[in-house]
Fold this protein.
Amino acid sequence: MSTIQHTGSPDDAGAISPKILAHDQPELSASRPTAARRAHCKISRIRLISLASSRIWQIAAMNVDPVLLTTPTRSAGRRRLMIARGMWAVLWPSLLVW
């Protein structure tokens, strides 16, 4: 028998209608994730690890001298300030020391 089963009823007067058999359709297995789902899970894990490490860095830096280790929030603030002022205005004084 082929993948299409031809059935006819006496009311159809010999008309044939194709019917796809249930066992011929591919099963979508919930146990095997697709490639897109695996990629999404991988990205989510990377984001979670990054967030956890920045939290640990924040807590550790709050208990240490700021000269030795600065906090991520202070570092982000300084980055915004450097971008707002222009990178050259901030870098020029450090280049004059050389």
The longest strand covers residues 4-7. The mean pLDDT is 76. Strands lie at 4-7, 17-20. The radius of gyration is 32 Å.
